[in-house]
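Final report, closing paragraph on structural work. Over the funding period we assembled a curated collection of sequence-structure pairs, and we close with a single example.
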Amino acid sequence: MVSGQPTATLTIYRNVGGVFNAPPVTTAVAVGTATVSFDSCASGRLVYAFSDGSARSGSIALTRLTQNVTCQATAARPTNADFAYSGNWYTPATSGQGVTVEVNPASSALFLAWYTYAPDGIGTGASVQRWYTGLASYVAGARTVTVELRETSGGAFDAPTVPPPATVAVGTGTLTFQNCSSATLSYVFTGGTNAGQAGTIALSRVGPVPPGCAA
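Its predicted structure, as stored:
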């Protein structure tokens, strides 16, 4: 997305064949296209079309979950030393899995979404993929935060289900930012499909350091 132009055309990729917190690097395969656009700092829309044979296409209205920190529709955009830690983080040796983080001092919250795989690559195709989410209170200036890790199952793509998806606690994770481009995620899984896994992952930021980031 170009600064000042709140619309971007994207390629949708799918990665399979990975192993939880271990090589190999997985290959991204294009499976569709999408356009994301924003009509304000609090709302937008995602229009998608898949080319993977599923014929899935549609439009999803988007609403911001947390408070706005640096978005401005017309004025010069401010920076924030905490919010600038938000972004995508990964380990080069296991590219194809990683962590998306939002550090939001305005909402006093840190949220992460961890996309990874089953241990030992158990299963085939999409059945190997695993998603975990974590949410914790955040105090401005903190550089270490512990979140409860949760695993969700039972959902359907862009559609409601009855019963709704089930989300259960499966462990804890501690995210520590060493600086604006390096971090670690220490984890302990006590339940779910990765139960018994524990360790620490060294993370690097994907892309350049945002303006205003301060250690």
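Residues 77 and 200 are 35 Å apart (CA to CA). The chain has one domain: 7-205. We thank the funder for supporting this effort.
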